[in-house]
Amino acid sequence: MKTLLLLSLCVYVAWAQDNLDFDDYDIEATNSPDVNRTSVDARGHRPLVKGRESYTPSRYSPPPISNGGRYRGRPTPAPVRGSHSQEEEQPEAGGCTHAAKEMGVLCPTGCELKTMLLKQERNVRTSINELKPQVDQLSRSSNNIYNYVSSMSNSLRERQRIVGDNSRVVGRYTDRVEDQHAYIKETVDTVFPSSIRVLEGVLDKVRLKIQKLEKAIQAQRELCKEPCKTSCPIPVVSGKECEEIYRRGGRDSQMYLIQPDSFYPPYKVFCDQTTNNGGWVLIQSRLDGSVDFGRRWDEYRRGFGNIAFDAGKGHCETPGEYWLGNERISQLTKMAATEVLIEMQDWTGDKVHAQYRQFTIQSDTSNYVMAVDGYSGNAGNCLLEGSLELFGINRTMTIHNGMMFSTYDRDNDNWTPGDPSKQCSREDGGGWWYNRCHSANPNGRYYTTGAYTQQMAKHGTDDGVVWMNWKGSWYSLKAISMKIRPFFDS
Ligand SMILES: [Ca+2]
Questions:
Q1: Are 483 and 282 spatial neighbours (Cβ–Cβ below 8 Å)?
Q2: The pLDDT value given to residue 444
Q3: Which residues are in the Fibrinogen C-terminal domain (predicted)?
Q4: Which of 54, 172, 181, 439 could bond to 468 as cystine, CB 3.0-4.6 Å?
């Protein structure tokens, strides 16, 4: 019973210690300058960027109707020509009328009438004789008119027949037109939509291709940002790494071709053949800020930067700024025991170094976990011990040994894994074996001022080229380099 009680007490103490540690984290984290950052503006709207953007309201207005029918004045009836009244003629009364017409007609009588009739008969006969040919002529004319009317009737009937025929033809054509219309409508309703779908598919593919091209163009632009690499004569001597080149007579520090694995093609690297008996493969180099180290996972995996320059001696004996690439570093350190030499320089010219007798980078599948051991040097043992400015768990957080590699697009650090807002690489400027987060930051932002401040840092964090155990968090080194070679126990 006593033993059980003691065991329970031990468990409780251990649990309480754990919780205390967590509380310490939180208190420390709250007090750390990392947290006191300015808040980000709300982005519910998109304000215009002054001088670069403008707002143009685009509205469609239909054009006015033109050439659609001109107004014509309505025709007016022709004016009536001046009419004049005609004198009413008095009827012929055989000379029997009164002198005044209001008095009416005076009828003749007796022989007087006979004489008058005889006299009249002559006149009438003459008139009849004159009228007769006119009547004949009129009769003939009537016949002609009759014939003409008959002919017109025939023509009219013929026309009506033609019109009838035409309407039948028109009817037939109308039917055909309706058939055509139905066919076209069906085509529009069924064939066109499917064709449009096909075209939309094609359009989507074209769009994807354009996006790919734009990405490729962007990638090319990124490449073009880097300064042009000068061509260097490649030394005849080569080997699987710089140590082998040294043994084969390559004693000058310069760019060489190495081929660690005959299965893969050789690649260029800078060999330091003078420091500590030479044989060093330069895997990391910062010296003037000419290369951006804020890069993606894939770039750190493949490597980037400039291997070396020809400063006028006919061969590339001046190293550039570069990262050899995690894949190559991993391969080199896994071939055999490897040591690493980290040399650094401040802005006054002082130099220190940190050396580890064992240095191995695991493969891609384990996110290039780093393992170091066997420190010596005068820069401070950042990779194994963390920052000496910190104590307890806070120092532990800055140890790099055993960490996976992280970049701003691949968070493998120890700072709240799974929370995308807690990314050391994003805040500290480069790819590195971040913990939570660092005591050494050789791939950080390059400050030409040396000392820098929280206000100068992009995220208010110590994102410079930092080796805390030498210069603290707020001093960015002028130069730092990492070199590896096979380790031979002497
Ligand atoms: Ca994290």
A1: yes
A2: 96
A3: 233-488
A4: 439
Residue 417 C-alpha to ligand 1 middle, in angstroms? 4
What is the 193 CA–ligand 1 centroid distance (Å)? 50
Q: Measured in angstroms, how far is the CA atom of residue 452 from the centroid of ligand 1? A: 25
Q: Which residue has the higher pLDDT, 282 or 232?
A: 282
pLDDT above 50 (res 261): yes
Name beta bridge partners: 483: 282, 341
Residues of the chain by 3-state class (helix, strand, coil), percent to 5: 40, 15, 45
Whole-number Å distance, alpha carbon 144 to ligand 1 midpoint, is: 118
The Å distance, Cα 387 to ligand 1 centre, comes to 19
410 pLDDT higher than 50: yes
- Tell which residue, 439, 456, 453, 428, has the closest CA to residue 403: 439
| Separation of CA 382 and ligand 1 centre (Å) | 20
Taking Cα atoms as reference points, which of 298, 291, 266, 269 lies closest to residue 281? 269
- The closest alpha carbon to 394, from 365, 363, 435, 358, belongs to 435
Could you write out the DSSP letters of every residue in 222-262?
HHHHSPPPPP-PPPS--BSSHHHHHHTT--S-EEEEE-S-T
Q: How far is the CA of 13 from the centre of ligand 1 (A)?
A: 29
What does DSSP assign to residue 188? Answer: I
Distance 422 CA to ligand 1 centre (A): 5
CA distance 94 to 97: 8
What is the tens place of the pLDDT at every residue in 376-398? 999 999 999 999 999 988 999 99
Distance 408 CA to ligand 1 centre (A): 10
Give the model confidence (pLDDT) of 4-63 as tens digits.
Answer: 444 454 444 444 344 333 333 333 333 343 433 333 222 212 122 355 433 233 334 333
pTM confidence score: 0.56
What's the confidence (pLDDT) of residue 375? Answer: 97
Distance 384 CA to ligand 1 centre (A): 20
Could you tell me the distance, in angstroms and rounded to a whole number, from the CA of residue 21 to the centre of ligand 1?
Answer: 19
